[in-house]
Amino acid sequence: MNLATSLSSVKGVGPKTAEQLELSGLHTVEDLIYFLPRKHEDFSEVMNITDLKPGKRTIKARCESISTRTVRRGMRVTTATLADATGKVQAVWFNQAYRATQLRDSTQEFFFSGEFEFNYNKYQLTNPSTEKVSDLPVQTDRLLPVYRAVKGLKSQVVRKILNELRPLMTMLPETLPESVIKTNKLVSVSDALLGVHFPKTSQDVERARERLAFEELFELMLASQLNKQANAKLESWPIKFEPPVVKRFVDSLPFTLTPAQKQAAWEILQDLEREHPMNRLLQGDVGAGKTVVASIAAIQAVSAGYQVALLAPTEILASQHARTIADLVKNDNITVGFLSGSVTSKQRQPLLEGLKNGQVDIIIGTHALLEPAIQFKRLGLVIIDEQHRFGVNQRQKLLEKSGRMPHLLTMTATPIPRSLALTVYGELEVSIINQKPAERKPIITKTISPVSRKELYASVDKELAAGRQAYVVCRLIDDNPANEAKSVEMEYKKLQNSVFGHRRIGLLHGKMKPTEKDAVMRRFLEHKLDILVSTTVVEVGVDVPNATVMLIEDAEQYGLSQLHQLRGRVGRSSHQSYCYLMMSDTSKPSQRLREVERSNDGFYLAEVDLKLRGPGEIYGRAQHGALNLQVASLADTKLIARVQKAAKDFARTENDLLQYKQLSAHVEKYQRLTTLN
Question: Which terminus, N or C, of the chain has the lesser number of Cβ atoms within 10 Å?
Answer without folding.
Answer: N
